[in-house]
Amino acid sequence: MVQEIGGLPGNDTVSPSYGRYAVPQDDAGAEGGEVWDLLLDIDIVDGPFLIAMYVIASAFFVYLLGRGDGWSWVLTVIVLLIVGAIIGGAALWIAVNLLNLFGGPVIDATWLWVPAASAAILLAIWNLWHSRWWRKLIAVVAMPIFAFTAMLGINASYGLDRTIGALLGLSTVDAIDLDEPDDPAAPDPTEPLYVTWTPPADLPATGTIGIPEPGVPNTVSGFDARPAQVYLPPAALVADAPRLPLVIMMMGQPGEPDASFIGDVLDAFAADHDGLAPIALVVDQLGDPMEDPLCLDTAMGDVETYLMQDVVPWARANLEVLQDRRSTTVAGYSNGGGCAAYLGTKYPEVFGNILAISPVEYAGADRSEQVLDTVFDGDQAAYDAVMPANIMTANAPYADTSAIFTAGENDAGFAPGAERLADAARGVGMLTTFSVIPDADHGISGLMGGLEAGFALLYPRLGLAAP
Q1: Which domains, from first to last, does the chain contain?
Q2: What distance in Å separates the CA atoms of residue 146 and residue 124, rounded to the nearest whole number?
Q3: How distant is the alpha carbon of residue 461 from its chain centre?
Q4: pLDDT tens by residue, 259-284
Q5: Whether 404 contacts 449, CB under 8 Å
């Protein structure tokens, strides 16, 4: 079972230091910082805050309904709500299908919340005319409340921004000081970890998440990435910790490098495998959450150079990880899943494993004509050359690459592309699995289900469980 996503794994029980990692302690302004963190950590997915907003919005709506009486008012309300819903639905259709403001299809709940909010706002606007001043005031206050509540409802349906801080892009994750690994140049052990590992008595129950210090540099690329987050499993938090497999992961767009999701899933696996799990480094392939640099080196930023020449060398030099390709996984969700498919197929000498969860089929697949014109200057051959399926064909055969593609059963926008990628990977000799996640969509159900399915397959390959 996937653990419930609340705070960050282990944050409630983390001591000032674990083995070779330390969480810096800063007493200056601690009280004010704690209050601010409490506000940012308010749960907006399934906690009382969300219920309170639903109740408040409903109260405003009921009040605005009570402006008139008789059948003429009832008919007026019906017309207002229908017209308002049509306006909202049309605006959303334009934003998704013509302007591509959301980087692809949106989940079904969005198509309910936006028309509902638009209908309620039009009702509020109607209450501004021929009414007393207090009704006008309530109507004015109601409009942003309806919009904010709809935003919270959509966000809760996706389930990816669980707190106010996450919604605002403000992290409350602590920094983790990293010591240098013992000797990154030393050969990897020849025996799998599940055979050689004996958990010590002081093994923590869960892993921990933090922003690594020193952080991932952008020395080669100059790409302005947001701070990465690292998940350290229980086995990494003890003295004389073993080298562990490495996962480099990217999230979706809009989104941020949030390690709590993969951390929750790996904590569950670690609990069943004596604390063993990969070290997961979640990095930023966007820079700006509202921009998509396509995971390439373009005028929008040298993202590919950042990931391959800044991130990968840094991770291998600064984290206690196994160095061989078979122990190295590139993973991603949605936009990040497309990035994982691209990097994993282009750099098989670096990544022995690909985990693409609900991936974009290729860079800019949802707006390919625009990308062709603006990024590739109309050069279709150049665009084709960066599509993962074509890279697979050019690099075939792949002697020892494990490729896992997942998509939600109800994710009609991304599942077909993920299946096509799986078919292409299978055709060039990759050890390929395509997993359909039951009852999942493109939100948290698809993400968590994909992580679970992926690591169930990867654990034996990574030497963390018996074949």
Answers
A1: 48-158 (no CATH), 174-461 (3.40.50.1820)
A2: 10
A3: 24
A4: 999 999 999 999 999 999 999 999 99
A5: no
